[in-house]
Amino acid sequence: xxxxxxxxxxxxxxxxxxxxxxxxxxxxxxxxxxxxxxxxxxxxxxxxxxxxxxxxxxxxxxxxxxxxxxxxxxxxxxxxxxxxxxxxxxxxxxxxxxxxxxxxxxxxxxxxxxxxxxxxxxxxxxxxxxxxxxxxxxxxxxxxxxxxxxxxxxxxx
Length: 157
Description:
Layout (H helix, E strand, L loop, with lengths): L1 E10 L8 E15 L2 E8 L3 E8 L5 E9 L1 H7 L4 E14 L2 E8 L7 E6 L13 E4 L8 H6 L8
């Protein structure tokens, strides 16, 4: 088991794009979601897949279990998805010694750009990059399970 300690931000600019080190095309969907727990399948670049279980309702910290699964089985599980399939491109961007994952959403969520910072450190606001907008940690409408199962949030940083 691993603890996931994460902060989420809307992204307010494009300056991060020149700093991006990698990009991964992601399709993900949920097999089950309830308050405090989710079961997700993520397919990366059409080449690999993972099954992830998350537990907990704290805004910044949850228990996470993740397992590699055969790509063919992940594709079969798509038939059991609840809600919409999320399509996004994840960009890795480094700033101040930290790795930010910037997700640019497509499909019905096009226009939404969210950055995640996974670290146990309490990074002071003055060390955050200028291209981050409003922090949305704890705002459930910006979490992937809510994006898959619920409405589309206002897309504004």
